Amino acid sequence: MHKKEFKHVYISERKAFDKLLRRYKRSYQLDEQQRLLDKYSERDSRSFWKLIGQIGVASDRGSGIPLEVDINGSVVTDRQVVLNK
After folding, report:
1. What is the pLDDT of residue 14?
2. Phi, psi (deg, nearest 5) at residue 43
3. Comparing C-alpha atoms, which of 58, 75, 74, 57 is closest to residue 66?
4. 1 Cβ partners below 8 Å, 6+ apart?
5. Is 25 a residue whose pLDDT tops 90?
6. What whole-number distance in Å separates Cα of residue 46 and Cα of residue 40?
7. Strand runs (DSSP E) across 10-78, as ranges?
8. Where are the domains of the chain?
9. pTM
10. CA 44 to CA 59: how far, in whole Å?
11. Is the CB of residue 68 less than 8 Å from the CB of residue 76?
């Protein structure tokens, strides 16, 4: 195979992958919407708002800045050394 043929195969596989990804993402989002609607129709509003809170961006945040630094190929986790870097 030549370079152009490889590129053509790559592009067609990428399109197929993207199409499947969009389909499954859409399916997942519809399932989540239905789950929220089911929770909303129940009388327990606390669980509904708990689910709403889990969907938000805040649940994806990390715990903060990692306290480790690479010095001359070795990882140092001493808090004072990291803060001084």
Report:
1. 96
2. -85, -15
3. 75
4. 9
5. yes
6. 10
7. 69-71, 74-76
8. 1-59
9. 0.50
10. 22
11. yes
